[in-house]
Every structure is written in structure tokens, then in C-alpha cells.
Amino acid sequence: FVSYSAEDDWVLDDLVPQLEGNEGIKLCIHERDFQAGRLIIDNIVESIENSRRVLIILSNNFARSEWCQFEMTLAQKHVLNRAMEPLSVVLLEDIDSENMSNSLNALLKTTTYI
């Protein structure tokens, strides 16, 4: 499951083609893989629960999005419950202090990221 802001074009333009096309990794991305007609929350929960790993793409857009924050919190809960592998985190840009939530700050302090 890839948790990211739809405002970050890099994900669909570069990351998805590289990982799916060149590396053969199956990704779950919300624009393509969420089931139409279902509640967004149900799609998020089911997608995270059915994924072996969550890849979080951090950016200021991500930090400002309540949906992204919800996905991150839910993924952290699954990791703590040992229901999935540790999170993989990509930091696209430095996060501005006004966008830094306590949970995002904790994630950056406790997780190795690229």
C-alpha cells in the first residue's frame, strides 16, 4: 500500500512505473485500486490490512492532508500490533515546521527513511 498525497506527481509519474514496471512489485494506490462506491475509510483499512508493507511518501502535501495522516496512523497501529512489516518511508522534501504533527515528528525520529 502506498500512502501519499495525490498532489505529489512524482509518485504516479516516476515511482509507480519504476516499481511495478521495472521491479515487478504490485502496488496498491488509491486512484486505481480503491473500490468505487465504498467508503474511503473502508478502502483504506482493507487495503492496509491486505498489504504486506506500507510505503509512506512524505511531503508537505502529505503532512497537510488529513487522509494521509489517517493512513499513516492506521499503518503505525498495524506495525505496533505486529500485523505487518515495518513501514518504508521516503522523504520527498523537508517538512516545514508548520506542517509537522506530533505523530509525523515521532515517525521521522523513530524510522529510518530515504
TrEMBL record:
Gene3D superfamilies noted in UniProt: Toll/interleukin-1 receptor homology (TIR) domain (3.40.50.10140)
Residue ranges that the Swiss-Prot or TrEMBL entry lists as coiled coil: none
PROSITE patterns registered for this protein in UniProt: TIR (PS50104)
Subcellular location: Membrane
GO molecular function: signaling receptor activity
Taxonomy, superkingdom: Eukaryota
Xref: Pfam families: TIR (PF01582)
Keyword set includes Transmembrane helix: yes
Keywords: Membrane, Signal, Transmembrane, Transmembrane helix
InterPro entries: TIR_dom (IPR000157), Toll_tir_struct_dom_sf (IPR035897)
Protein name as it appears in the record: TIR domain-containing protein
